[in-house]
Design brief:
The chain is α/β, with parallel strands linked by helices. The chain folds into three domains: 4-50 and 569-675, Sandwich (Immunoglobulin-like), CATH 2.60.40; 55-71 and 245-338 and 364-565, Glycosidases (TIM Barrel); 96-242, Jelly Rolls (Sandwich), CATH 2.60.120.260. It is built from eleven helices and 36 strands. The strands form seven sheets. An eight-stranded parallel beta sheet has the order 4-16-19-20-21-22-23-24. A seven-stranded antiparallel beta sheet has the order 3-28-30-31-36-33-34, with helices on both faces. It binds alpha-L-arabinofuranose. Alpha-L-arabinofuranose (AHR) is lined by residues 60, 62, 273-275, 402-403, 436, 490, 528-529, 539.
Length: 676
Amino acid sequence: MKREYSCLKTGYNNRLSLCAIAVAAFGGVFLSAADSVTLSVDLEAEGKPISADLVGIFYEDLNYAADGGLYAELIQNRSFEYSPTENASWGPLSFWDLVEGGEGSGHLGLGNMRPVHENNPHYLMLNVEIAGTGVGIANNGFDQIPVEAGKSYAFSFWAYQAYMGKKWGGAPEEEEKPMPMLARLESESGEVLAEAEFVVQGREWKQHSATLVPTVATEKARLVLLAKEAGGIALDMVSLFPHDTFKGRQNGLRKDLAQTIADLKPKFMRFPGGCLVHGQGIHQYYNWKDSVGPVEQRKAFRNSWGYHQTLGLGYYEFFQFSEDMGAIPIPVVSAGVCCQHAGDSPGRGQEGMPLDEMPDYIEDVLDLVQWANGPADSEWGSVRAAAGQAEPFGLKYLGVGNEDAITSIFEVRFKMIRDAVAERYPDIVVVGTVGPFASGEDYDNGWKFAREEGLKMVDEHYYVSPQWLWDNLDRYDAYSRSDAEVYLGEYAAHEPDRRNTLRSAIAEAAGLTSFERNSDIVRFASYAPLLSRRGHTQWTPDLIYFDATNVYPSLNYEVQRLFSVNGGDRGLEFSLTGLSEGEKLTASVVRDSKSGDLIVKIVNGGSEARTLAVDLSSGPRERYSLDDTVFGHDDADLVNEDGALPAVVSVAGKGEVAAVFERVYPANSLTILRLR
Ligand code: AHR
């Protein structure tokens, strides 16, 4: 893009009379030429090939994004693995209450001698001394369990019978008796909404399940599981899922939240983090193998953000979600170093995995590729197939490292991993990392290392002020076209108070025009973070907020969506003339070869509406039909408030314009013009 500043508002051409007609036809407001800037598009050239996959998502389990978030499980601490290492006030029995019905009495204990699986070491021992009307446990979920009337919920638990009657000195014939059990969904006032009966018998772990259909809807149900006779029952994996998950998947995703994400039409999904990937200690990294296979065999752990991660939402579910959305999966693995802020170190606490452990670690990374892409009868491909996906997932990109300090400790380990992947799977693009900032030591060293190693792609991150994005619109113009491509894996405009203002969203729109103009080398870009549960937020701003029953997309979300659904595969040259110095007005122009549409995006970050003429006179056409979308508001400080109507919504229109047409672009706005 040529950006030409002029106080004299030059660059207007002799088609002005046509503009007036065009704007009148379109129903726009006509202002005089002296108020206009002109965006002239070069339609003689074909334009350069650009990434058709520019806008995607970065998913990290932060702000309760997984458990209590996207993962549809409604029970909190279902496998009794909560721990004080995650939260000082937590333990294996957290979020469970003892229920003693009628004259009943009993107590809860913790077992670890005969776990369901070694990866899931703890379970609950429910000891019932006097059965009364039932003694058992209750769970209120993540703050609350919302249920809908007439909808089906899959309830299940694992159990074995430890003893019947008295624990010591009971009658021997008692031991043969089965234990009758009852599961209920109850309202806050104790009204029974749904129930199911079970019989637990024998010393082996067995899964029991039933469908519960509440008769009445409530936002605050609780799940109760009762033993109806005296005795001891071991319980684990007590679970409640809506049947109605995203795409009806088992062990699936919360439908409204997943749909909101899918509505972004993300072209790729990076997961599972962020800082979560390398973890707070050398052996605390996210091990993908712990996250696949039957859920009761997955290895829950503390995530870097200081809470519990069941890994019920694991690699299989990430790949499946990517596939369901038509997004390219981009998993990220640790580069064999922990976070430089680990071990309570505020600075460089980076440690490397002992070198003699690296070969095994590297095998795990290679196994991931086989798990994703290998035939169903390969060692790891068979694990994928057993989960229900016989066809390969088609992995093409693999992130190695996240914002790591670029030290020799990092470089040695990264290189070992990269070389092994390149040797065994030469088609996989290994995505490197160039530190946490837009510039500085790690950025410089990361890029230097990437050049030396001939990396094909690196992951840049920056959280910056809205003004920074406006000041750096030309950042990628100067990047060498022969270096690694850029994946801008994390970015956001941060206000001083870190609210999701319209100002921040419009600054991101401006940034996106520059990424798009340079998307011959900026292949992917994802806003971060994606999700945040109200009341459990460690980081703001985020793209989508939610609570137990509602989803609140931010204004920033709408900008991401508009860019995502209006992408192209050819970038066209254009000039912007008549701008004043420092004026917050920018644009990008692409063509979508499939539809043939020409898509012009114009961002006005100023506090005044701006008149601009679009000049397509270099092309063969005299008139175009136009679909336009305008997203903006006079007040840049607006944010979407919970429960209120969205502060700003996109307004769509249709019309016809001449090859040169003028219109007004509101203050703080993003306008998409789709011309055909
Ligand atoms: O997006 C939140 C965090 O920001 C990510 O975990 C990390 O990569 C970055 O510092």
